[in-house]
Amino acid sequence: MALTPATAGPRVRRVRLRDYTTLRVGGEAELWEVENEEDLREATRGPFLVLGSGANLLVADAGVAERVVRLGRAYGGMPDFAASSLAGRSEVWVGAATPLPGLVRRAQRAGLSGLEGLAGVPAVVGGAVAMNAGTRFGEMSDSVVAVELFVNGALEIVPASELGFTYRHTDLPAGAVVTRALLRLTPSTPEAVAEATAVVDAARAGQPKVKSAGCAFKNPPGESAGRLIDEAGLKGLRVGDAMVSFEHGNFIVNVGTATAEDVTALLAEVRSRVPVPLELEWRRWGF
Ligand code: FAD
Ligand code: EPU
What whole-number distance in Å separates Cα of residue 280 and Cα of residue 57? Predict the structure, then answer.
């Protein structure tokens, strides 16, 4: 019988980050998969970046030198919404590696309201907190009461009021890893939650289904970056296999084997042709 060590330690391997991002762009890195606090301590001893589901990342073709830390299965369980709503409670801790789409569906089935605005947003909970993901129907910060952070080698609970949530932005302390989030949801009915979700699904219906990282740019105040890019006549503009989507101007899609260099050149071209300054929403790694 094989002996299993008490703690196996982080699982470390070299990967191509393009296999871990929705845009399918980016070179190699060392991936450190962690399952507990001890693993986190070890993984974060060197310079590191935290990977969620890779839905908002542009990674350089040469990859990254930092360790890429990803929370493993131990951080990804679904909370028992049924039990929490039966008990009349609406606050529940959720692991940072829990996939957001599944969470949104589960909350709906349990008749808990608060996550409908996040329907269709590809993410894990940690990435959705870090980006304050959302739509005009609601954002992550609407439901987050507190987060558990691994920072400076220890876990701490930080109330949402100290996280500086604004549009697509959170002030996480440098080097912090979100490990769990405490969500407050409002008891409703599955039917009412489904109805609200359908409105959000409808608003997203025109978004492209091909490889992308969602909207490339934040909306300038009172404006839509997608509309500005569309009005500048840039749909279909292409560098290599990176293209401004015909369906939505703010989606830069990978129509084949785009490189980070192609994508970067296209972003610069789009910015130079739109009269309003555009701020990147994507996080760039390795540049
Ligand atoms: P990643 O892309 O992996 O990481 C994003 C950032 O979060 C990085 O800086 C990373 O270091 C940090 N991070 C991740 N996990 C942690 C953690 N545990 N602790 C600390 N930092 C962490 N976004 C929206 O807001 N609204 C939308 O409607 C939307 N639609 C999209 C549609 C498509 C088709 C796609 C591909 C993307 C879309 N996005 C949208 C973008 C994306 O879904 C969000 O930005 C989401 O929050 C990214 O989460 P992630 O887990 O993939 O994070
Ligand atoms: N529009 C155009 N042409 C386009 C795209 C949009 O004319 O190519 C017009 C639309 O017709 C509409 C307006 O611009 O009148 C706004 O468009 P849309 O409803 O698609 O919203 P958006 O502002 O472009 C935002 C978020 C999306 C989110 C949707 C749905 C940002 C940067 N984008 O898009 O989030 O899914 O609302 O609510 O805030 C993301 O952040 O990655 C993302 C996809």
Answer: 11
Whether residue 85 contacts residue 111, with contact meaning beta carbons closer than 8 Å, is answered with yes
Instruction: Report CA-CA distances (Å) from 69 to 12, 46, 184, 216.
Output: 9, 11, 27, 24
37, 131, 168, 178: residue to mutate for ligand 1 pocket, most atoms within 8 A of CB = 131
| pLDDT for 82 | 73
pLDDT the model gives residue 1: 46
Pocket lining: 227 vs ligand 2, CB cutoff 6 Å = yes
Banded model confidence at residue 3, pLDDT cuts 50, 70, 90: low
Q: Is 284 in the pocket of ligand 2 (CB under 6 A)?
A: no
Task: For residue 184, list its beta bridge partners.
Answer: 91
**Residue 282 buriedness (CB in 10 A; 0-12 / 13-18 / 19+):** buried
Catalytic residue check, 105: no
Residue 283: nearest ligand to its CA? Answer: 1
Distances (CA, A) of 240 to 127, 209, 226, 260, 262: 29, 19, 21, 10, 6
Q: Write down the residue that tokens 């409703």 correspond to.
A: 188
Catalytic residue among 11, 168, 238, 284: 168
* Catalytic residue list contains 16: no
